[in-house]
């Protein structure tokens, strides 16, 4: 802006320096003012405007305007922002139909059918109301600071993951020293699993970092533009709109960022590998990445985005399908325990078809995975059947127990099995009974109808459905914690955890699915209702990676697939 006041009346006394010359540390008296460049120009710079094609059409105000109110009047409706498509042209037009600025070429090409095309200089006062600049600048700076913090946190998290990756690899190497008879390929495969896990997490962390950097740059740009516009009413209003739009965009980006703030990669050795070397297990154990904080907890009810059905009946089935138990494999495939047809089925939800089936010889009630390549099935003939999950499912070993195997879950080399009655049994992996849970802390019967079981996200709690008495929560050692009930739930049957602090429970008699917090303090309501056309709901399982919720129903050849968010 001018270095003197505009109240002087003598041309000799009213002197402005050339803006460009000052930047080049040269002296030059201004003779004109460029509205687009928003700077004063000496004779040499005026001639330069004539020689450069991109500057030819700039609006050069006469020197007489520099000492009059004409300058203020003319500048108040002049925009110097250039078109991002046609870079030699200025945003001089405004489309009220689409609320967009553009150059004359943009308007001719993209808005020729619009009826409300106006010159910026004619309508700028009618479009915007003046907003407090200081507050907006402060908000921009705060958002920029926040995004810088997000960026820094994500970078620190990435470094922690890299460090924990090395620790996980060290764990793998120590295991190898203890079982030196294992081939080197096992070590390589395990390290590959760790690398792949880090690669997946690294991908979205780098995406978050990139988004944070992008928003920081955009916020700074909006801030700079608004600061430069101070004193120019049209510029202020234009940049105020840009700033508000950017703040909205940044807020949306913040909501879309992954919420983990602290994570660590752990390698859990597979103790069964020592006993099953002949099965050529490819990895020492399972790579898992745990969120160390509670930032991934969800405190709102899930919503159903879409619903579809998958026909699971095969040509070899002799009876109507009746899937009592289900679970996802680590590869995202779906396992179904078909009670009526005495089979375990593998479903590809991408192709929406059964891709493999395995005859069990007895009726299965439930299924769960114990490793990436092995599952266990609870059967009504007092048997736990192990199934290899290779290119084709195959029966492997089995263990006999003294009770019906109804619901089944695996955790820390233990099997937690209900009998569909008044007991929960805790077995080791060879079938020995370690504990039988039947009573609460006061000596009263704990269960009336113990059906399905699921562990909490952290593995410190076990949830057992108990019919009309709701869901019983116990710790991993079998100690009673609490009983969860919900007014919308009748006949609790299936249960699963969402890895975000909640459980889903199917109501066999209420024909629905309810959502509860894993600490039992909150009841969020019905995720799936009877109006979603489910009836006599049995098992439930969720793939938190893609938000897929699976519900099976009594005597039904189709399973329900719900996309939730």
Structure description:
Helices cover 27% and strands 31% of the residues. It is an alpha+beta fold and 565 residues long. The chain has three domains: 1-75, 30s Ribosomal Protein S18 (Irregular); 133-269; 311-564, 7 Propeller (Methylamine Dehydrogenase, Chain H), CATH 2.130.10.10. The strands form nine sheets. Strands 9-32-31-30 form a four-stranded antiparallel β-sheet, with no helix packed on it. Helix 6 packs parallel to helix 8 and helix 7 runs antiparallel to helix 8. The protein is elongated, with a radius of gyration of 34 Å.
Q: Strand order, biggest sheet?
A: 9-32-31-30
Shape: elongated
Unreliable runs, pLDDT <50, ≥5 residues?
1-14, 67-78, 291-295
Assigned CATH superfamily of the largest domain:
YVTN repeat-like/Quinoprotein amine dehydrogenase
Helix content: 25-40%
Radius of gyration: 34 Å
Which structural category fits the helices and strands? alpha+beta
Query: Any guess at the CATH architecture of the largest domain?
Result: 7 Propeller
Distance between the termini: 53 Å
DSSP strand count? 32
Key terms:
565 residues; 32 strands; Methylamine Dehydrogenase, Chain H; 30s Ribosomal Protein S18; alpha+beta; 4-stranded antiparallel sheet; 3 domains; disordered N terminus
């Amino acid at each position: 802006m001018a270095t003197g006041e505009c109240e002087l009346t003598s041309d000799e006394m009213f002197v402005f320096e050339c803006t460009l010359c000052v930047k080049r540390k040269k002296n030059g008296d201004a003779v004109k003012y460029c509205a687009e460049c928003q700077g004063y120009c000496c004779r040499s710079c005026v001639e330069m405007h004539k020689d450069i094609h991109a500057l030819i059409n700039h609006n050069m105000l006469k020197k007489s305007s520099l000492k009059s109110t004409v300058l203020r009047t003319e500048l108040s409706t002049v925009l110097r922002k250039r078109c991002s498509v046609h870079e030699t042209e200025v945003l001089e037009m405004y489309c009220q139909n689409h609320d967009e600025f553009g150059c004359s070429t943009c308007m001719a090409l993209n808005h020729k059918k619009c009826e409300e095309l106006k010159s910026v200089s004619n309508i700028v006062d009618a479009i915007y109301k003046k907003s407090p600049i200081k507050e907006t600048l402060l908000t921009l700076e705060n958002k920029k600071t926040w995004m810088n913090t997000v960026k820094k946190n994500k970078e620190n998290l990435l470094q922690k993951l890299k460090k924990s990756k090395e620790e996980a690899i060290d764990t793998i190497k120590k295991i190898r020293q203890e079982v030196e008879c294992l081939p080197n390929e096992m070590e390589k495969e395990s390290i590959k699993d760790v690398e792949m896990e880090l690669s997946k997490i690294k991908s979205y962390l780098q995406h978050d970092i990139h988004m944070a950097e992008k928003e920081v740059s955009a916020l700074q740009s909006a801030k700079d533009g608004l600061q430069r516009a101070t004193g120019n009413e049209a510029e202020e209003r234009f940049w105020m709109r840009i700033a508000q739009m950017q703040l909205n965009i940044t807020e949306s980006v913040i909501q879309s960022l992954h919420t983990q703030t602290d994570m660590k990669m752990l390698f859990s050795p597979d103790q069964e590998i020592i006993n099953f070397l002949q099965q050529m297990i490819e990895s020492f154990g399972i790579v898992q990445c745990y969120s160390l904080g509670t930032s991934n907890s969800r405190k709102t009810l899930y919503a159903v985005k879409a619903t579809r059905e998958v026909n699971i009946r095969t040509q070899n089935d002799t009876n109507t399908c009746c899937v009592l138990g289900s679970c996802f494999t680590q590869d995202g495939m779906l396992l179904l325990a078909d009670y009526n047809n005495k089979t375990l089925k593998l479903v590809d939800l991408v192709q929406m078809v059964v891709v493999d089936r395995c005859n069990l010889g007895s009726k299965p009630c439930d299924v769960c995975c114990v490793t990436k390549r092995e599952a266990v099935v609870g059967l009504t003939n007092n048997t736990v059947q192990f199934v290899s999950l290779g290119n084709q499912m195959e029966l492997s070993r089995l263990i006999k127990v003294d009770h019906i195997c109804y619901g089944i879950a695996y955790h820390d080399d233990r099997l937690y099995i209900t009998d569909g009655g008044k007991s929960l049994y805790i077995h080791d992996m060879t079938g020995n009974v370690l504990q039988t849970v039947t009573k609460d802390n006061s000596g009263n019967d704990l269960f009336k109808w113990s059906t399905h079981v699921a562990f909490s996200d952290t593995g410190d709690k076990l949830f057992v459905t108990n019919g009309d008495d709701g869901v019983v929560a116990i710790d991993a050692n079998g100690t009673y914690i609490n009983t969860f009930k919900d007014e919308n739930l009748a006949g609790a049957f299936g249960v699963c955890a969402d890895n975000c602090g909640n459980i889903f429970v199917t109501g066999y008699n209420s024909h629905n699915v309810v959502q509860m917090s894993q600490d039992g303090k909150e009841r969020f309501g019905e995720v799936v209702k009877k109006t979603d056309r489910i009836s006599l709901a049995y098992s439930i399982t969720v793939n938190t990676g893609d938000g897929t919720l699976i519900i099976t129903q009594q005597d039904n050849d189709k399973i329900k697939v719900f996309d939730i968010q």
